[in-house]
């Protein structure tokens, strides 16, 4: 028997050198709402998309030696066809086709495919820090 009861995903955190720019991206693309954030010794922005799910954006420590995300935005190749399958966050939307169209209108490079033997479409792309994102279709 599992130790945790009633577990669900509460939030995902992303570290960034530009949390304001990253927050604006998630607000514009997914409709996240900026909510009150606690005061720490470093900057944070908390965004919420539903009553039970949030993204916490955390100011990157200047001592950090690692690139921004799985791919650095300075990388010569930021190709969504090569997004690492184990390094992404997935959202589902009911307006999949218009959502994909809005990404293209914004100049965001995407890669689309369908789930084999299931009526689900997927689009893959990167946020401004190079973190992999997937959006899957869902029924209305």
Give your account of this protein's structure.
The protein has 2 domains: 9-60, Roll (2,3-Dihydroxybiphenyl 1,2-Dioxygenase, domain 1), CATH 3.10.180.10; 77-140, 2,3-Dihydroxybiphenyl 1,2-Dioxygenase, domain 1 (Roll), CATH 3.10.180. Helix content is 16%, strand content 32%. The chain has 2 helices and 8 strands. It has a 4-stranded mixed beta sheet, covered by helices on one side. Strands 5-8-7-6 form a 4-stranded mixed beta sheet. It is globular and about 50 Å long.
Helix content: 10-25%
Q: Give the class from helix and strand content and strand pairing.
A: alpha/beta
Label the overall shape.
globular
CATH architecture of the largest domain: Roll
Strand arrangement, major sheet:
1-4-3-2
Average pLDDT for all residues: 84
**CATH class membership of the largest domain:** Alpha Beta
Specify the biggest β-sheet.
4 strands, mixed
Supply Rg: 16 Å
The name of the CATH superfamily of the largest domain reads 2,3-Dihydroxybiphenyl 1,2-Dioxygenase, domain 1
Distance between the termini: 35 Å
User: What is the N-to-C order of secondary-structure elements (H for helix, E for strand)?
Assistant: EHEEEEHEEE
The number of helical segments is 2
In percent terms, what proportion of residues is strand?
Answer: 25-35%
Low-confidence stretches: 71-76
Number of strands: 8
Organism: Salix brachista
Protein name: VOC domain-containing protein
């Amino acid at each position: 028997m599992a130790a945790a009861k009633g577990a669900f995903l509460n939030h995902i955190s992303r570290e960034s050198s530009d949390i304001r720019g990253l927050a604006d991206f998630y607000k514009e693309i997914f409709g996240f709402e900026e909510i009150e954030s606690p005061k720490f010794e470093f900057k944070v922005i908390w965004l919420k998309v539903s009553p039970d799910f949030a993204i916490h954006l955390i100011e990157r420590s200047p001592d950090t030696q690692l690139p921004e995300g799985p791919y650095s935005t300075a990388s010569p190749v930021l190709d969504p066809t090569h997004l690492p399958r184990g390094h992404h966050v997935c959202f589902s939307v009911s307006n999949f086709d218009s959502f994909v169209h809005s990404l293209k209108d914004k100049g965001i490079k995407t890669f689309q495919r369908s789930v084999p033997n299931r009526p689900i479409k997927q689009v893959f792309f990167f946020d401004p820090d190079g973190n992999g994102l997937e959006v899957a279709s869902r029924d209305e």
